[in-house]
Amino acid sequence: MKKFVPGGILVAALCTSVSVTAQSAPAASSAPPRAHAHPSFFTSNQSRADISAHTQKMFGELDLNRDGFVTQDELATRQAQFDEKMAKSAPKRAARLFGRLDSNHDGQITLAEIEVAHSAHVAASGENKKPSRRHPTSSLLRLGDANKDGILTRAEFDSAVASGKLKPRHSKMRGSQLARLFDSADANHDARLSLDEARQATLQRFDAADANRDGVLTPDERRQASRTERAKRRAS
């Protein structure tokens, strides 16, 4: 995994690759959606063995001083490194995002193009959802369409990105969420995370999401587990 997710070892984000926002769906096309060239956490099945092996690999990347433990300081350092890298690549990622959504390459994005792109993304990812004007992709127009004419021009898009209204996001842990996940995985509460603790936490999470107990986690099972967790957080 070439792109690094700070805090990824901490339960939820362990196997998550860096991803663009919901807005970055594939461009519209008359051809059927193609399978992803590079299977990822979001589009492929993963076995229990996959999770365990990936935990060990990511732990090695997080354990900066190679003492066999990951600390909050090490996570913070990795987070800062990752944020710096992503900030530098933001203009290129923004340009790619615009190019994917501007399906007819006329220098502007319409809601129709956004919804078609989202539909293609849903089909490619296997999600059983219908395109909706309330989907987060429509926030591109809400936030970026300065003159509110229903069209997002490249100038409006660039201005919205420069001002921070639109952000080609990436998966990352931060703030209280990172601290909470660290604390939940730190079984003996010594403020250090060992490989055994990290592996145990991620496998427990895997087993909880593996609805049919077949030892394989599908994208659908991951999505359902995420929905369940969000519902629990809202209820608490």
Question: What are the SSEs and their pairings?
Answer:
Layout: E1 46-47, H1 48-62, E2 69-70, H2 72-101, E3 108-110, H3 111-125, H4 139-144, E4 151-153, H5 154-163, H6 175-185, E5 193-194, H7 195-209, E6 216-217, H8 219-235
Antiparallel strand pairs: 1-6, 2-5, 3-4
Describe this structure in words.
The chain is mainly alpha-helical. The chain has one domain. It has eight helices and six strands; from the N terminus they run E-H-E-H-E-H-H-E-H-H-E-H-E-H. It has a two-stranded antiparallel ribbon with strand order 1-6. A two-stranded antiparallel ribbon has the order 2-5. Strands 3-4 form a two-stranded antiparallel sheet. Helix 1 (48-62) runs antiparallel to helix 7 and helix 2 (72-101) packs antiparallel against helix 5 (154-163). The chain is globular, with a radius of gyration of 19 Å. Residues 1-39, 130-134 and 171-176 have low confidence and may be disordered.
Number of helices: 8
Proportion of β residues? 5-15%
Order of helices and strands: EHEHEHHEHHEHEH
Tally of individual domains: 1
Portion of residues in helices? 40-55%
What structural class do the secondary elements suggest?
mainly alpha
Please, what is the average pLDDT? 75
- Using only C-alpha atoms, the radius of gyration works out to 19 Å
Distance, first to last CA: 34 Å
Which blocks of ≥5 consecutive residues have pLDDT under 50?
A: 1-39, 130-134, 171-176
The side-by-side strand order for the widest beta sheet comes to 1-6
- Global morphology: globular
